[in-house]
Amino acid sequence: MEKHHKSRRQFLQHSALSGVAMMTSLPILASELTKNKVSTLSSSMLKPGGEFSNYGTPSPYEKEVIRWISANSDVPGNGVSWTPLHELQGTITPNGLHYERHHNGVPDINPDTHNVVIDGLVDKPLNFSIHHLLRYPQHSRICFIECGGNSNENYKTSPSQASAGYAHGLVSNAEWTGVPLALLLNEAGIQSSAKWVIAEGADAGALNVSIPIDKLLDDGLLALYQNGERLRPENGYPVRLIVPGWEGIVNVKWLRQLKLSASPAMTRDETSQYTDLQPDGKAQQFSFEMQVKSLITSPSVGMTLPDNPGTYQVTGLAWSGIGKISRVEVSADGGQTWQDALLQEPILDKAFTRFSIAWQWHGQYAILQSRATDESGQIQPTREVLIANRGKYSYYHYNAIISWEVDELGDIHHVYA
Ligand SMILES: Nc1nc2c(c(=O)[nH]1)N[C@H]1C(S)=C(S)[C@@H](COP(=O)(O)O)O[C@H]1N2
Ligand SMILES: [Mo]
C-alpha cells in the first residue's frame, strides 16, 4: 500500500515534461456511455464460444505483431529476426517473439540423444544427457540477451526509418531456468590453470566462443526452460548457455561442449566478428558487457499522434549488462531539458526495466529522447560522443541516445539529434 502511494506521488511529480504545465489529473479518453450500448448484447454473447486448444496462439486480431526477418540470401541459415519492441508492453518477451540470430539455421535436435560434454582442464571429464541435467537443482532468472550488432544501422550517416523494434529489437528479455554452471564445473573439478571456457554449439557451423571462467562461475546458467516452458528450437533447444548481461554471441545455443582452457581459442566469431574497430584501426576483442541503453518504444518512429492537443504516455525500455537501471530521463526538446521517468518495479539486475512519463502535446515540433543511467553510474552517451569515442567505422555495441522527431502533424520520424 505504502509503496503504491509513493509511486503515485512520484508519478504526479514527474507527470509533465518541460515546456508544458504540470498535470494534476489524467484526461478521460473513453467515449461517453450510451444506454443503448449496455442493453444490447454483444454478438459474442449470443452463442457458445469456440474450441479449446492444446497449445495457444495469439488472437488473429494481433497477426501484425510479428518478428521481422532479415536473412542473408548468400549464406543459407544466416540472419536475424527482430522483436517488435514497439508493439509490446511490460518487460517479458513472449517466446514466439524472442529475437533470433542464427549463423547456420535452426538445427533439429532430439533431446534423447543430445549431450553436453565438460572437458579440457578438468579433473574428470563429464558427459551430461538432457535427462541428467533435468535432475539437477534448477535456478530461474530474468535477463535480457542483446546481440552485439543490435542498432548498428545507427552508425550509418542517414537515420533509418524502420520501426523501433525492427531497428533495435535484437534484444529480448525472458525468464531462463536451468542448472547453475558453477555446480557442473565444480563437479568436473576445475584445474587451477583453467581460465577460459570454450563453448561450442551443435549447429552446422559449430559456433564456438571463449568465455572467462569466472563469469560462468558467477552467474552462468545452462538453460533448459524459457518463460516457463522448454526452450524454443530457435533459441537453443534443448539446452543453451545464458551469460547474463554479456553480448549475445557468448550465449551459445544448442550447447554441446564446454572445454576448459588456459587461454581463449581465438575462434572465428571472436576475431573476424563481434570485435570493436577503434579509431586507430586496431580492433578491440572481448568487449563482453553490454552497456547501458534505453529506447522509447511508444510513441516511436512510424507512429502518428492521433489527438492534438493530447496527453500521451511516453514509455520504453532500459537495460544494462553491468547491473540495475537506476534512472531514466526523458526529453521532449532534443536533450536541452530532461525529466525523470517513472521506473516500473521490480527493477532487476541485467534485465529490461519499463519506464513511462506523461507528455502533453500541443502540436509543437518535438524531439523525444530517453537517457538511462545504471547503478554503476554509466550514462547513455549521445550519438556524437559515441561516434567520437568509437570512430565512424564502428559496427557493434551501439548504445547511444535514440531520437524520435514529432512534426506538427504528429508524424514521428527517426532523426540524429
Ligand atoms: N550455436 C549457436 N549459438 C548462438 C548463435 C548461433 O548462430 N549458433 N548465435 C549467437 C548470437 S550472435 C546471438 S546474438 C544469440 C542470439 O540468441 P537468440 O537467437 O536466442 O536470440 O545467440 C548466440 N548463440
Ligand atoms: Mo549476436
Question: Topology of this protein?
Answer:
Elements: H1 2-13, H2 35-39, E1 68-71, E2 79-82, E3 100-102, E4 115-120, E5 126-129, H3 130-133, E6 139-146, H4 164-168, E7 171-180, H5 181-188, E8 196-201, E9 208-212, H6 213-219, E10 221-226, E11 229-230, E12 240-242, E13 255-261, H7 268-271, E14 276-277, E15 283-284, E16 293-298, E17 310-319, E18 325-331, E19 339-340, E20 342-343, E21 353-361, E22 366-374, H8 383-390, E23 403-406, E24 412-415
Parallel strand pairs: 4-13
Antiparallel strand pairs: 1-2, 2-3, 4-5, 6-7, 7-10, 8-9, 8-13, 10-11, 10-12, 14-15, 16-17, 17-21, 18-19, 18-22, 20-21, 22-23, 23-24
Helix pairs in contact: 5-6
The protein binds the ligand Nc1nc2c(c(=O)[nH]1)N[C@H]1C(S)=C(S)[C@@H](COP(=O)(O)O)O[C@H]1N2 and molybdenum atom.
Protein name: Sulfite dehydrogenase
Domain Oxidoreductase molybdopterin-binding: 103-265
Domain Moybdenum cofactor oxidoreductase dimerisation: 288-399
Structure description:
- With 417 residues, the chain is α+β, with helices and mostly antiparallel strands.
- It has 2 domains: 100-281, Sulfite Oxidase, Chain A, domain 2, CATH 3.90.420; 293-415, Immunoglobulin-like, CATH 2.60.40.650.
- Helices cover 13% and strands 30% of the residues.
- The protein is built from 8 helices and 24 strands.
- The strands form 6 sheets. Strands 5-4-13-8-9 form a 5-stranded mixed beta sheet. Strands 6, 7, 10, 11 and 12 form a 5-stranded antiparallel beta sheet that branches. A 5-stranded antiparallel beta sheet has the order 19-18-22-23-24, with no helix packed on it.
- β18 (325-331) and β19 form a beta hairpin.
- It is globular.
- The two termini are 41 Å apart.
